[in-house]
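Structure (tokenized):
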């Protein structure tokens, strides 16, 4: 709680002290009474306001905060509702006459005061306002700041109520056309065991990472001592790994994450198990940390993919970024997920990164977009594209900031 006098209270207190001193010096009883009355008014107001402080004592006010939607995509709005409730009559007295102000991170408020609508009921006050998610990340809301003044306007107190809440912001995503016919042609599907619908829906094969556990044939698995799954068209969809090389330049970071997230969702909508592998700090964890997400999981599958992008950070330097990418490429090469599709969003690569990514194409269908973060990097990006093509990748060059759909269609066109 912060208790402070208003300008009126300061003036009244100073006037009271002056009147009291003059009355004593001059022997004027009336001046002494006036000065004493003014000081008592200020002190009494401070005591009354302090007693009704909503942040202290047994009769605290409860605060609940909801954000819809949460998470929200960057560039979209979220509606925030803050409900302040009095749980008993004593708390109801404290609730009356309060003024409310909400706090929000600059990434949500844009640095401007929040314009809220306040709705009052006998035991509850509801504060609603909207925020604009400017950047991907996790941004705080609250705590609620409440102020109260006395009827004479001489003292004001402020306090905070409730805990901070958090709004998670996903990257902006763009709907992309499902590319199954381009990425997985019929010859590839036959070679990799992706079956067309047939009456032999119960044929079995070994379990591969990304298969739906609901298709496990438990009796056959028990006989053979290894997991066996029913191999039908859905179970044979090739798993997709989206490899993201995080740029050190902040200007390219959000665009790259948005492109990778959009590609991941396009493949998920096409029925493929998908995982997002970022060239960041998380590449030091075991391969099990990059589990595949299935569209059969429902809306939660999209959320699970997008949640993995919220905490992605740019590397501290280009050297660190390349080391992380090499680690991610090694992870892809050693997870024994032969026959998967690898979609990569890359920057210009050094020799070690090119060598590491060359091995990825040995047992996977590999596609990449290579960004030129600055005009000076266009030649390096073109050199990277040519090196990847020699290693068996399909690759094209893109520029950060251009439409995501254009980059996607250019990548698919590189197969022709």
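Design, position by position:
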């Amino acid at each position: 709680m912060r208790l402070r006098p208003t300008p009126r209270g300061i003036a009244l207190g100073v006037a009271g002290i002056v009147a009291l001193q003059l009355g004593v010096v001059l022997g004027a009883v009336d001046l002494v009474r006036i000065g004493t009355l003014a000081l008592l008014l200020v002190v009494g107001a401070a005591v009354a306001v302090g007693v009704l402080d909503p942040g202290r004592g047994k009769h605290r006010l409860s605060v609940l905060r909801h954000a819809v939607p949460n998470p929200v995509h960057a560039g979209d709005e979220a509606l925030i509702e803050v409900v302040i409730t009095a749980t008993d009559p004593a708390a109801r007295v404290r609730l009356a006459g309060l003024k409310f102000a909400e706090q929000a991170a600059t990434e949500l408020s844009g640095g401007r005061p929040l314009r809220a609508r306040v709705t009052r009921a006998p035991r509850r006050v509801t504060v609603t306002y909207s925020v604009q998610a400017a950047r991907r990340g996790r941004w705080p809301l609250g705590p609620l700041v409440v102020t109260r003044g006395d009827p004479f306007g001489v003292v004001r107190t402020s306090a905070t109520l409730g805990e901070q809440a958090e709004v998670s912001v996903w990257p902006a995503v763009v709907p992309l056309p499902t590319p199954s016919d381009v990425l997985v042609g019929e010859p590839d599907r036959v070679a990799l065991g992706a079956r067309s619908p047939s009456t032999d829906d119960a044929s079995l094969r070994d379990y591969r990472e990304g298969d739906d556990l609901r298709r496990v044939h438990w009796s056959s698995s028990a006989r053979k001592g290894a997991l066996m799954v029913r191999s039908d068209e859905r179970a044979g969809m090739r798993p997709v790994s989206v490899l993201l090389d995080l740029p050190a330049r902040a200007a390219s970071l959000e665009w790259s994450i948005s492109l990778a997230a959009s590609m991941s969702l396009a493949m998920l909508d096409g029925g493929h198990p998908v995982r997002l592998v970022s060239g960041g700090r998380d590449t030091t964890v075991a391969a099990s940390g990059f589990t595949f997400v299935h569209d059969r999981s429902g809306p939660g599958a999209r959320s699970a993919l997008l949640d993995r992008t919220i905490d992605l950070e740019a590397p501290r330097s280009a050297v660190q970024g390349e080391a992380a990418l090499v680690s991610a490429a090694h992870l892809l090469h050693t997870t024994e997920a032969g026959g998967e599709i690898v979609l990569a969003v890359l920057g210009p690569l050094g020799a070690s990164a090119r060598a590491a990514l060359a091995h990825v194409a040995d047992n996977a269908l590999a596609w990449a977009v290579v960004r030129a973060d600055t005009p000076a990097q266009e030649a390096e990006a073109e050199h990277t594209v040519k090196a990847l093509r020699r290693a068996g990748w399909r690759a094209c060059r893109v520029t950060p900031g251009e439409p995501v759909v254009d980059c996607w269609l250019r990548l698919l066109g590189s197969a022709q």
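Reviewer-requested clarification: Residues 180-194+237-413 form a domain with the Rossmann fold fold (CATH 3.40.50). The chain has four domains: 2-51, 62-170, 180-194+237-413, 198-236.
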